């Protein structure tokens, strides 16, 4: 499928890269269909809307930022996208890169869970007080390596 992207112009995406969020993402509930793309710089990814080229998110695995990250949500919360065990899920968090040069952060409170088999996804909200909407990625990694 051909997709107009924010970062790369027109690209050819494979069906396996297509991710559907039946409920959308928070603040983008009307946008359901995305493609998951490798970013030029690892360990980041792009989640690009198929419907609106200007809607794209940078993603990262939360486990790279915080190896102690726990997705404490009930099994029933992800049942509607067919996730009934951790092995079925791919977990990402959304990265914010401020235009003013401030620290790059990731939202560990609102992870994205994607079913490996069906490619359906859902954004969850975690109630664990350890996880906030803005975790400084470089500070978290530096703190871990300093230990």
Write up this protein.
With 147 residues, the protein is mainly beta. It has one domain: BH3618-like. Helices cover 12% and strands 31% of the residues. The protein is built from three helices and eleven strands, in the order E-E-E-E-E-E-H-H-E-E-E-E-E-H. It has helices spanning 62-65, 75-78, 137-146; strands at residues 2-5, 9-12, 18-20, 33-38, 45-49, 56-60, 89-96, 105-106, 112-115, 121-123, 135-136. Strands 3, 4, 5, 6, 7, 8, 9, 10 and 11 form a nine-stranded antiparallel β-sheet that branches. A two-stranded antiparallel sheet has the order 1-2. A hairpin with an 8-residue loop joins strand 7 and strand 8 (105-106). It is globular. It starts with a strand and ends with a helix. The mean pLDDT is 93.
């Amino acid at each position: 499928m051909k997709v107009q992207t924010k970062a790369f112009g027109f690209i050819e995406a494979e069906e396996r890269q297509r991710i559907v969020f039946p409920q959308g993402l928070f603040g983008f509930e009307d946008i359901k269909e995305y493609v998951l793309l490798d970013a030029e710089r690892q360990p980041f990814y792009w989640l690009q809307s198929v419907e609106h080229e200007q809607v794209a998110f940078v993603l990262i695995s939360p486990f790279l930022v915080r190896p102690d990250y726990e997705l404490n949500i009930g099994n029933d919360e992800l049942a509607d996208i067919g996730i009934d065990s951790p092995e079925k899920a791919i977990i990402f968090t959304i990265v914010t890169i401020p235009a003013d040069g401030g620290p790059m952060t990731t939202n560990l409170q609102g992870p994205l869970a994607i079913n490996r088999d069906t490619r359906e996804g859902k954004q969850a909200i975690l109630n664990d007080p350890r996880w906030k909407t803005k975790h400084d990625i470089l500070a978290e990694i530096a703190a871990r390596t300093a230990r």
